[in-house]
Amino acid sequence: MDWGMKNRLSKIIRPETGRTVMLAVDHGYFLGPTTGLQSPGKTVEPLIPYADTLMLTRGVLRSCVDAATNIPIVLRVSGGTSILGNLADEGTTVSMKDALRLNVAGVALSIFVGSELERKTLLALADLVNEAEEFGVPVLAVTAVGKDMVRDARYLGLACRIAAELGAHLVKTYYCDDFEKVVRNCPVPVVIAGGKKIPEKEAIELSYNAVTRGAVGVDMGRNIFQSDNPVSMIRTVREIVHKDLKPAQAWDMFTTLAHENKEKAFA
Ligand code: 5RP
Question: What are the pLDDT digits (tens) for 15-41?
């Protein structure tokens, strides 16, 4: 692996712990004005100090994030569909040249294994890896799941392994029963998405289970920015990811911080 690739990867996965807290705020690329992200700049600003990377689209990066902000960016470079259409029919939306101009630490693209467009999305991943390798840019493959797909270890394991085989440097998937198997069968680091908003106590347990069962961290969105206490939530998730804080202590930490900070939910 060349120096540039290693250097960028070390900006995503912290070398001190081998873990990462990625803050995902790319949802608008197919969901439009997602709850909590109506003003993405306002939402992310207080969270950035506690995130290792920010995952978002080119448009939101350029228009809502101060260029002087010192946070590594994982840029979503796939899209072209909306919640109203066929989500699997994505294409690559950002050139490598523009990604580099935006000084990214990595690029992200979704694959839709099991969909009728599986081949197209997998070949798009392979093409992206080919291009990214040329410039030393890590690729995060997002194992997207359709509404009718079971999120079990067999399916997610299949999607993660294929992503790694095609050259992804990092894979994002969902937590599931037998998650250890998914991680064991995937030769590159795995992070989990948080999924739909669930009570904070459950999101804390989810984060703990994921990292203690082999994930290198989280690439979490809604369970942070849709919390009534987003800063308390990301600070707590950070302690879990980087210090293996146990769920009971993490819940104490969250409730204490939430009480002290009396945060306002984002409108
Ligand atoms: C969409 C994504 C999102 O970034 C991902 O779903 C993470 O966010 P959340 O924790 O809200 O699920 O990649 O495809």
Answer: 999 999 999 999 999 999 999 999 999
Task: Take residue 126 and report the two structure tokens written for it.
Answer: 């392979």
- DSSP of 5-17, one letter per residue? HHHHHHHHSBTTT
Q: Is residue 266 scored above 90 in pLDDT?
A: no
Q: Which domains does the chain have, with CATH numbers?
A: 3-266 (3.20.20.70)
Euclidean distance between CA atoms 247 and 53, whole angstroms: 23
Q: Does any ligand 1 atom lie closer than 6 A to the CB of residue 221?
A: yes
* Other beta carbons less than 10 A from residue 3's beta carbon: 8
State whether the beta carbon of 54 lies less than 6 angstroms from ligand 1: no
Mean pLDDT of the chain: 95
Question: Can you spell out the DSSP letters for 139-207?
Answer: EEEEE---TTS---HHHHHHHHHHHHHTT-SEEEE---TTHHHHHHT-SS-EEE---S---HHHHHHHH
- Measured in Å, residue 194 CA sits from the centre of ligand 1 at 7
